[in-house]
Structure formats: structure tokens, C-alpha cells
């Protein structure tokens, strides 16, 4: 944790009274000096490491976050999501149970990475959570907001589904009306695909993206949605094809280009793991080749 501004673990063996008499500040005390008081009572302190985009997380949102939580003088987190490739969506007020973390999230934006200090009254209280969290512990949380979905977007999904059913069950009187119905279905397919991606349901998102492509085979948004869904499912070949077709339509689209960069990184990691696995399965293969 030294890279994060925390002191050496050696100081944990000094009694707090001895540190005070020696004029030494604890790691959290030093860290607090560079942090912002977001409530006005010094109970939650925040430092923005990387700014995010868009409006703050709404109070009724579902959020997908990466976080690691630390006790003072500890180099290892007592809780982390770093092992999860795609953290699940958590509903504020229901799934996020740490009061300080929920209040901290309301101050964050999509893509933001921040550091928080929570005093005991906003964390685990005077009792703590034995044996993991000691009594009256101040805790450090490092948090990144990957995405969030507000209640209006969830409501939109459930509103779009019956509208699509009505259009699907309507028999067109002629070819022109058939084209008109298809044109009305296209934005519904696109919105359903996007919402399902944000609800972490890539298979269904791919289904509606492909339905949109049946209406308009060159639709950039549909190609992009399908590429995103395939990438989430680790189907790298299809993800590359969809994303490259979307990029061909809009070469300077930042969202598409950033997703292609993410694809390249994920694919490299995948290939590295494949090579490592093969080398473990066939350790004598290279030796045999050399002979």
C-alpha cells in the first residue's frame, strides 16, 4: 500500500500513544489531510484519483463497481472484487449494506476511481465485525464505478417489451406497412439490447442486436451492441467481426474504438493464458521440437 500513500507496516507495532508522543501521524491521518470532507462532519473523506463522466450516481440506481477495502497498516484488503471480471449490479439501499460506501457512491460518476476513508459510524461501528474488523475501526475503500443503471432505464426495459409484442403480433396489410412496422421495431430492438447489456445479460442483448440487424444489416448501433455482447461472453472472433464492421461505418466513434482497445487487451490475456495452459499440459513439447 506504500504506492497509495500509506506508511510502512513497521509502524503497526508502535503503540498509538507512543506515536502521538513522538509527533508521528498514522497512515490514515496523513492520508486524510489530502482528502475532501463530503458530508461536513469528517465522517467520510474522499480523494478522486481518476475523474468520471456524466451525472452522479442516482439514489435509486443499480451500480456495478470494483472495490478493495483495507484496515490501517494492512497491505492486503479484507474485502475486494478484484477477482471478478464483471461485478454484478448492486441496488443502492438494498445490496450495498455499508452506509458510508452508499453515501460515497452517490458522490461518484461513471468511470470514476476514488479513495474513501470511513469513520466507524459510517463503517462497522463501535463493535466492528469480529474477527475480521476490530472495534471502532476506520476503513479505507478504493472504489471504481464501472457502470450504473437508474430506475428509469429499468422501467424502460419493461415498458418496451409489451410494445414489441404488440408490433410482432400485428399482421401487416401490405409490404409498405410491413416496412413501417419493421422501422418501428428497430429502435425498440436497439434499446432492449443496450438495456440488457447494462443488466449484464449479454446473450439476450445479442439476440435483440441481431434482430435489429435483420431490419437494418448495416446499422452501426446494432453491430456495436452485438460486438459488446460477444465480448462480454468471451466470443472473441464474433466480437472482432462485429466491432470492425461498426468501426468501418464510423471510424472516429470513440465508444467503438475504446471497445476495440478493450477487445485487444482481453484477447491478449486470453491467448497468454492459453499458452500458459498448453505449456503446463505439454511441458516436454518444446524440448522434443529442439531435438
Entry keywords:
7-stranded antiparallel sheet, two-stranded antiparallel ribbon, alpha+beta, 10 helices, 291 residues, 9 strands
Strand and helix map with partners:
Layout: H1 16-21, H2 27-32, E1 36-37, E2 44-50, E3 53-56, E4 62-71, E5 79-80, E6 90-91, H3 99-105, E7 109-110, E8 113-118, E9 139-149, H4 151-169, H5 175-198, H6 202-215, H7 220-232, H8 236-249, H9 254-281, H10 285-290
Antiparallel strand pairs: 1-2, 2-8, 3-7, 4-5, 4-6, 4-9, 8-9
Report on this model:
This protein has 291 residues and is α+β, with helices and mostly antiparallel strands. It is built from ten helices and nine strands. Strands 1, 2, 4, 5, 6, 8 and 9 form a seven-stranded antiparallel β-sheet that branches. β1 (36-37) and β2 (44-50) form a beta hairpin.
Number of helices: 10
Main sheet? Answer: 7 strands, antiparallel
> Roughly how much helix do the residues carry, as a percent range?
40-55%
Number of strands: 9
Average pLDDT rating: 82
Q: Supply the helix-strand structural class.
A: alpha+beta
- Kindly report the oligomeric state of this protein: single chain
Low-confidence stretches: 1-14
Taken from the alpha-carbon principal axes, the silhouette is: globular
Order of helices and strands: HHEEEEEEHEEEHHHHHHH
Strand content: 15-25%
Amino acid at each position: 500500500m506504500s504506492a497509495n500513500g500509506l506508511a510502512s507496516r513497521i509502524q503497526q507495532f508502535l503503540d498509538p500513544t507512543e506515536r502521538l508522543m513522538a509527533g508521528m501521524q498514522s497512515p490514515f491521518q496523513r492520508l486524510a489531510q489530502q482528502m475532501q470532507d463530503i458530508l461536513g462532519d469528517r465522517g467520510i473523506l474522499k480523494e478522486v484519483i481518476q475523474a468520471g463522466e456524466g451525472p452522479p450516481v442516482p439514489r435509486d440506481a443499480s451500480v456495478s463497481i470494483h472495490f478493495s477495502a483495507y484496515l490501517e497498516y494492512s497491505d492486503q484488503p479484507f474485502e475486494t472484487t478484484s477477482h471478478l471480471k464483471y461485478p454484478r449490479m448492486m441496488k443502492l439501499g438494498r445490496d450495498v449494506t455499508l452506509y458510508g460506501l452508499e453515501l460515497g457512491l452517490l458522490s461518484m460518476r461513471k468511470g470514476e476511481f476514488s479513495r474513501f476513508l470511513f469513520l466507524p459510524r459510517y463503517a462497522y461501528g463501535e463493535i466492528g465485525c469480529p474477527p475480521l474488523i476490530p472495534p471502532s475501526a476506520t476503513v479505507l475503500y478504493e472504489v471504481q464505478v464501472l457502470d450504473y443503471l437508474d430506475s428509469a432505464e429499468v422501467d424502460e426495459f419493461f415498458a418496451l417489451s409489451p410494445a414489441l409484442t404488440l408490433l410482432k403480433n400485428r399482421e401487416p396489410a401490405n409490404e409498405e406497412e410491413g416496412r413501417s412496422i419493421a422501422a418501428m421495431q428497430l429502435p425498440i430492438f436497439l434499446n432492449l439490447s443496450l438495456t440488457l447489456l447494462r443488466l449484464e445479460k449479454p446473450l439476450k442483448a445479442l439476440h435483440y442486436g441481431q434482430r435489429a440487424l435483420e431490419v437494418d444489416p448495416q446499422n452501426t448501433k446494432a453491430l456495436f451492441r452485438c460486438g459488446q455482447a460477444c465480448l462480454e461472453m468471451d466470443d472473441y472472433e464474433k466480437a472482432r467481426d462485429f466491432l470492425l464492421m461498426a468501426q468501418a461505418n464510423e471510424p472516429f466513434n470513440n465508444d467503438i474504438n475504446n471497445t476495440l482497445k478493450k477487445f485487444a487487451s482481453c484477447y491478449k490475456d486470453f491467448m497468454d493464458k492459453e499458452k500458459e495452459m498448453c505449456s503446463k499440459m505439454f511441458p516436454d513439447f518444446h524440448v522434443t521440437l529442439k531435438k
